[in-house]
């Protein structure tokens, strides 16, 4: 860890990347949090994503002010959303959900990253949003929403799965796996007809 702390401020980008990747495999502590968050703030945008990955991997909190301005950068948006969703801080989690306007469509630039970012979340609001995304017109969004619900057996999901799986326009391999995992009856009839 000490070597990683020394190398994280190197002038060599590869040394910085190896240092922050090493820290991603250590236990979270205040020194690691400080140096990794500093890297997110000051590193060149071309390597900043490595530091954001470590923020996510170590479940760091209090990220809204650090990461929300970076959501404009499409190359790191997925990592930023994932780190915010994985944060133990309620304000960070609420911020992720606030990106989805109430009673309106999710902005296209957020839509593709959101299901993967919410994969670690099990709160009712996140699960409800993922269930809604199972009906999205974009098959990639539907796939990642179903994939992110893996291991979930909420009553709302169990209620909606049969009707979703019966609609051929909504089916994805991840949705089928989710239906099998939750032992939804009638799958044989659906795929035979």
Outline of this structure?
By secondary structure, the chain is mainly α.
Question: Could you walk me through the main structural features you see in this protein, from its secondary elements to its overall organization?
Answer:
- This protein is mainly α.
- The chain has 14 helices and no strands.
- Helix 6 packs across helix 7 and helix 12 packs across helix 13.
- The longest helix is centred in the N-terminal third of the chain and has 13 residues.
- The chain is elongated and about 60 Å long.
Give me the secondary-structure topology.
Layout: H1 2-7, H2 13-24, H3 30-42, H4 48-57, H5 64-67, H6 77-86, H7 90-98, H8 108-111, H9 114-117, H10 124-133, H11 139-148, H12 155-166, H13 173-181, H14 187-192
């Amino acid at each position: 860890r000490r070597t990683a702390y020394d190398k994280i401020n190197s002038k060599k980008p590869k040394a910085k990347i190896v240092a922050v990747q090493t820290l991603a495999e250590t236990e979270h502590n205040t020194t690691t949090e400080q140096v990794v968050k500093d890297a997110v703030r000051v590193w060149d945008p071309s390597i900043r994503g490595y530091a954001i990955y470590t923020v996510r991997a170590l479940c760091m909190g209090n990220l809204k002010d650090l990461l929300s301005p970076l959501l404009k950068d499409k190359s790191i948006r997925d990592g930023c959303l994932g780190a915010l969703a994985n944060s133990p801080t309620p304000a960070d989690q609420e911020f992720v959900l606030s990106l989805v306007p109430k009673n309106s469509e999710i902005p296209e630039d957020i839509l593709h990253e959101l299901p993967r970012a919410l994969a670690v979340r099990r709160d009712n609001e996140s699960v409800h949003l993922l269930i809604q995304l199972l009906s999205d017109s974009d098959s990639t969004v539907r796939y990642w929403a179903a994939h992110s619900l893996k291991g979930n057996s909420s009553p709302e999901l169990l209620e909606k799965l049969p009707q979703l799986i019966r609609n051929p326009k909504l089916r994805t391999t991840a949705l089928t796996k989710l239906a099998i995992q939750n032992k939804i009856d009638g799958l044989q009839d659906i795929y035979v007809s």
